[in-house]
Amino acid sequence: MGKARVLAGLAKDAKGKIAKGAKEVLPKVKNVRRIRNVDIPKRPAPPKPNATNPRLKNIIDNIWKHAGKSGTAGDGTTFDALRNEILTGRPSNGIFHMQKSIESMRGLQKIIDSPNTSAADRAIAEDLLRRFGDAFGRGWG
Fold first, then answer.
1. Backbone angles phi, psi at 95, to 5 degrees
2. Which of 31, 55, 69, 120 is the most exposed place for a label (fewest CB within 10 A)?
């Protein structure tokens, strides 16, 4: 349970930084259209993991929900949406993904901690949790 708590703490800190940055920048912006296209560049989505655990499949589907679609930042996954929000202080595709990320991390940690999770599904969940950590901690993945 330690990793999820640490990542949730990072998420809370990042959320505060985004809000503070937006509060400082938004009053100074006269023409929002000028800064509209500074999202992280488009790139192909990584392959979607193939899990057997239904809860893990649901989390994966949620993360890859907008992968490859137009109007998204980076590869369209929740990871790149989160990176984009941390780097720009603006929502990705009109919404913030911080809460979704925190909930996904908690779900992944529960799957990792469950004794009924297969080794393959546990490895997938650990990798996804690591990717969230990368998105919160380092910005670019």
1. -135, 155
2. 31
